[in-house]
Amino acid sequence: QSLDWETFEQYSTWQLFLAHSIPLETIIPILQHLKYKEHPEALSCLLLQLRREKPSEEMVKMVLSRPCHPEDQFTTSILRHWASKYDDTLSEHIKAQLIKNNNQPRKRQSLRSSSSKLAQLTLEQILEHMDNLRLSLSNIKNSFFSQTPILQALQHVQASCDEAHKMRFSDLFALAEEYEDSQSKPLKSRRKAPATSPRSRKGAAPPTNNDDESGSSSASEEEDSKPKAPKRKRKGSSAVGSDSD
């Protein structure tokens, strides 16, 4: 009933409610029933409270259970905040949800989500929120999607999902493919650099002695620089000159 009150009345009620240190896990299930157009006051109060908390597995599950809509930024906003402060914890919780929902049959997931009053988290829903988070973090320096648990979970999902999901979330799965390539590169680089064998060392040409070459060249230069002795005149030429006198 309080969701139909005026904005100030709703904010005051939420402040009184949260001031009594009531565990947040008891309030979070209401997230699935709040609509971004009709209940902005309740969503903003819950968002402020969630930003103060370290994410637990139940919190992450309830946040991911919200319907994915382009204009509803609640889930993306809180995931982005947790990714900047608690990236290790958040990556482990998302990995657990991805693997858990990936192991369940797709038909069973659709039946549960349509029949039960409390909406069940599906694999497609998680991937949608993850893709929105990826786009949100693309403009800032954030290493959340380089976390090993996230990349391992994406590899696990990609190996068993159908072609339709692979095409729809191709950019998201591309991160897992890059991670797989980076893991295999060190092994290839080691094979490309084998040690030189003794035979190749024997066949190699011996190194030239630069000292000998420089010594011989300097000696030849010294010989060229020495002044040459003048040629001696022949005695016959001198005798002919004296008779003419």
TrEMBL record:
Record-annotated membrane-spanning stretches: none
Any Pfam family hit: HEAT_Ints3_C
Region listing for Disordered, in residue ranges: 180-245
Stretches with biased composition (Acidic residues): 210-224
Domain annotation Ints3-like C-terminal: ranges: 1-176
GO cellular component annotations of the record: cytoplasm
Protein name: Integrator complex subunit 3
Record organism: Scomber scombrus
